[in-house]
Amino acid sequence: MSELKKDQYWMQQAIELAKRGLYSTKPNPNVGCVIVKDDQLIGEGFHPKAGQPHAEVFALRQAAEQAQGATAYVTLEPCAHYGRTPPCAEALVKAQVKKVVVACPDPNPLVAGKGVQILKNAGIEVEVGICEDLAEKLNQGFLKAMSTGMPYVRLKVASSLDGRTAMASGESKWITGAVARQDVQHWRAISGAVITGIDTVIADDCQLNVRSLDSVDIETIAQPKRIILDRQGRLPLAAKILENPETVMVMGPYRQELADLGVIQLEIQPLKVLLQTLSKQYQIYDVLVEAGATLSTAFLQEGLVDELISYIAPTLLGKSARAMFNAEFEYMAQQLRFTLLDVTQLDQDIRLRLIPTQEKV
Questions:
Q1: b/e burial code for range 303-318 (CB count within 10 A of at least 16 → b)
Q2: Which of 111, 116, 127, 169 could make an S-S bridge to 106, C-beta 3.0–4.6 Å?
Q3: What is the rounded end-to-end Cα distance, in angstroms, of the chain?
Q4: Has 56 been annotated as catalytic?
Q5: Rounded to two decimals, what is the model's pTM?
Q6: Average pLDDT estimate for 324-328
Q7: What is the DSSP string of 138-196?
Q8: Under a CB-based contact definition with an 8 Å cutoff, are residues 224 and 193 in contact?
Q9: Which of 240, 301, 304 shows the shortest CA–CA distance to 278?
């Protein structure tokens, strides 16, 4: 096996380890590490939760003195700063590893090449970019926020074959089946926040939290904040979403009764500014939008959506049912186009994952 193939093999093991923290590390990134010597695995670890040791620390503890002269594979550039834990780059130097292979650099200004430089200054061979695309997918929100100050935004919609999301009355339970609805729990669980509009809360009395996830202990999941856009202050105090008020944020006029419950209140601001606020002030790097047509359309038309997750059920709801998108276009050139990432069948439903494109017709 070539050196490149070996590096890719071991990095893929590190990536699989990183996935174990998928639902629990927010706002920290998902990171995995394996330490290899003479083609044998001698240490492995992943970052489980903010405040706990990083992946490299767990792997080095397991490898112990065998780490000297070994190769460490890390999915994200080792940190170079003192936070809740000491710098991992210095831990690797202290362990006297021979080589460090990094999947993707860390754009966090506190790291941003400094981790690699610490290793190189100590005479450690460093290689960056092995399985970079796979590793980036683990931390799309973190990487985007560190680079741009904006979170990664996923817009989720569920519709009929004729593009309808609810009956004219607002009734919407249920268009898609149980398997598709369970799939939504995953996207909520990886998100730092779920954004919705007040009309959705009033119509559905929704909770928008993570209630079940296959083979995952619900107690280990870092629940997303639920953010309600309520410009006229209409949120009922009896709404189910307020049963756990400490995880609720409301953008709207100040209400003392919400403050008394412990709800975080945000001043009314444009959607782009709201997203910047969530990223910079609250360390929310992945956002899931689950809303009606008006808010969903606003996110799309303002170019704030990074990924569209569309569930399509094999049913027709008719022309009087509510549309999933309510913009009015006159010309084909105004259309919003998407690039298809993947198609997945979920029992009788279909899930499309798409990213907006700038392609003009």
A1: ebbbbbbbbbbeeebe
A2: 111
A3: 47
A4: yes
A5: 0.91
A6: 86
A7: HTHHHHHHHHHS--EEEEEEEE-TTSEEE-TTS--TTSS-HHHHHHHHHHHHT-SEEEE
A8: yes
A9: 304
The pLDDT score that the predictor gives to residue 329 is 85
Pairing of strands 248-251, 225-229: parallel
Query: What's the longest Cα–Cα distance across the chain?
Result: 70
CB contact at 8 A, 198 and 229: yes
Mean per-residue pLDDT of the chain: 92
- Output the DSSP codes for 77-119: PPP-S-SSS--HHHHHHHTT-SEEEEEE----TTTTTHHHHHH
The catalytically annotated residue of 3, 16, 56, 246 is 56
Handedness of CA 301, 139, 89, 82 (dihedral sign): positive
What are phi and psi for residue 33, nearest 5 degrees? -145, 135
* Both tokens assigned to 61: 């503890």
pLDDT band at 83 (very low <50, low <70, confident <90, very high): low
